[in-house]
Specification:
Helices cover about 40% and strands about 30% of the residues. It is of the alpha/beta class. This is Type IV pilus assembly protein PilM.
């Protein structure tokens, strides 16, 4: 049993909370790298790049082809042109188990570690020699003289895979986060950029039950719907729809195999005579699936109302999708832009930024650890 995250966080603290840091998101279909400069109050987007991964390199957040993943990350860092080598990465939620417990207040960090290690053996389904462990103090517990502590554990081999890929690409991993936590950190920036009235609804201000924000994270083969109220996840459901359906549509109309159609989609070389029709057909079909899932989610969750929708993932930028979702749900719908309100370095084209931003919630949230190392 090793306290893998705790040691990495200490490395960040030694460098100071403003030390340069790359946010590295190892996704199933691509590697995304984000570097932020400036300050927490006025962040600056210094670098952003996306490197496609061949099918099978990553699978459900696990590294299947170590050399290919490391090579893709190395290329992404080189394309960024950054000299920063310190990196924040994340594990998928499915690979991390969490548990709260209460411990006596006033314990030293060493004593806390000992108590957490002892408790972890009873709470987590990992053998001690296979478990990576971390913890943080959340604050005072309801019981006097106690503090609430959040423990997080993962299989050590998953941790080592992430660290190894980063190191093989020439980076120094200093933070290992959990993907949903990083994404929610970036989502908080998006919420802060909305009109004041909408923010108040999302935060639960005012009378009556607080409305939820519906977040759709659209991946290649699946879409994750979350109903969020602040940082609380009220409801989550995975839908078997994603950007791969658009690839199959292209393949069918152009007489191509899936891989060739995917390359055409990514390169933006779908024939001009076909592109608008295919985009409209896919956007309408996907929007209907999302609207249906939202109705089910609102009926099943503790909060039966939503004040807005946020679409994330590379597919969210598809022309017409935002309008289709808004029309079918009658809700204010936004395409996620975690870089909204940020200044940006020279050389970051606005058109490319708009296309990449919706898929960068996790990478941006990881890069934000530069300013908030302990959150």
């Amino acid at each position: 049993m090793r306290l893998f995250l705790r040691g990495l966080l200490r490395g960040l603290r030694r460098g100071g909370s403003q030390a340069s840091l790359l946010g590295v998101d190892l996704g199933n279909a691509s590697v995304r790298v984000v570097e932020l400069g400036g300050s927490a109050e006025r962040p600056v987007l210094q670098a952003l790049t996306c490197e496609a991964l061949d099918k099978g390199v990553m699978n459900d957040g696990q590294v299947e082809d170590f050399d290919a993943a490391a090579a893709a990350l190395r290329r992404a860092v080189q394309r960024c042109g950054t000299g920063t080598r310190r990196a924040a990465l994340a594990l998928p939620a499915a690979g991390v188990v969490t548990q709260r417990l209460s411990l006596p207040a006033g314990l030293t960090e060493a004593a806390l570690e000992q108590r957490v290690q002892a408790a972890a053996q009873h709470h987590f389904p990992f053998a001690p020699d296979e478990m990576g462990l971390d913890f943080c103090v959340l604050g005072p517990a309801e019981a006097a003289g106690q503090v609430d502590v959040l423990m997080a554990a993962s299989r050590q081999d998953r941790v080592q895979d992430r660290q190894g890929v980063a190191e093989a690409a020439g980076l120094e991993p200093v933070v290992l986060d959990v993907e949903p936590h990083a994404a929610h950190r970036a989502l908080a920036r998006i919420a802060a950029s909305l009109p004041v009235g909408a923010q108040a609804d999302a935060a639960g201000a005012g009378p009556g039950p607080a409305a939820a924000v519906a977040l759709f994270e659209i991946g290649a083969f699946a879409t994750l719907l979350k109903l969020l109220r602040g940082e609380e996840v009220l409801y989550a459901r995975e839908l078997p729809v994603g950007g791969a359906q658009f690839t199959r549509l292209i393949a069918r109309h152009c007489g191509l195999g899936f891989d060739a159609a995917e390359q055409m989609k990514l390169a933006g070389t779908v024939p001009a005579a076909l592109a608008p029709m295919l985009q409209a057909e896919f956007a309408d079909g996907l929007a209907q699936e999302l609207a249906r899932a939202l109705r089910i989610g609102l009926a099943s969750s503790p909060c039966h109302d939503a004040c807005r929708i946020v679409l994330a993932g590379a597919t969210a930028a598809l022309p017409g999708l935002q309008a289709c979702v808004a029309r079918l749900t009658h809700l204010e719908t936004h395409v996620a832009d975690p870089f909204a309100g940020m200044a940006r370095a020279d050389g970051l084209a606005a058109e490319r930024l708009a296309a990449l931003a919706p898929g960068c919630l996790t990478a941006c949230g990881l890069a934000l650890r530069r300013f908030h190392p302990c959150c």
